[in-house]
Amino acid sequence: MNALRSKTPRLCLPSLLSVSSLLWALACGSSHQSGEPAASPEAPAPEAPGDASSAEAAPTGSEAGRKVDVALQAKSGSSLSGNATLTETAEGVKVELTIEHALPGEHGAHVHETGDCSAPDGSSAGGHFNPSSHPHALPSGDPRHLGDLGNIEVGPDGTGKIEVVAPGANLKDGDPNSFVGKAIIVHEKKDDGGQPTGNAGGRIGCGEIKSS
Ligand code: CU
Ligand code: ZN
Predict the structure, then answer these.
(1) Which residue from 9, 19, 58, 117 has the highest number of Cβ atoms inside 10 Å of its Cβ?
(2) 65: pLDDT confidence band, cut at 50, 70 and 90?
(3) Residue 84 maps to which CATH number?
(4) Could you tell me the distance, in angstroms and rounded to a whole number, from the CA of residue 198 to the centre of ligand 2?
């Protein structure tokens, strides 16, 4: 009996394998209620689904690769139309923006902080999305507003296209750096990188970024 009692606690130590530790808990729990609860010492933290930091080659499921399509509305009396596709990548959010019926030249483009394009002049979208309180800059500048996308160049045919990645941004619901719930604004003039918002003039296009 003594020999049996001295062996049993060792056998009941939690195994690294959760299945076997469960079996041991079931097998040992009723026959041997010694002092120590078996719950505390082990707890090999189950992989949190949101923690992809160490999973380098994780398949692109629901965690990575979120994608949102955005339709742009004309604002401030413009006849602009366009759309954007936002895709989560390892670096941040890739923004592919296409516009039509705009005046040739460069036009500032930003993600603004409020996903509301209801105002005729686009003012309802608020200021540049800037969760880290950085100064404004072009994409070549660092630091800058998270929503600073630089300029889209429109050709003689009135169409323009850019593809730009916003590093550190994402498309998660409720995340402080998420573009979801914000708005894409295209301006009448070029963003010159100046403070506070690049001197890009009025807002000729606006698109609300909604959860997919
Ligand atoms: Cu803007
Ligand atoms: Zn800015």
Answers:
(1) 117
(2) confident
(3) 2.60.40.200
(4) 7
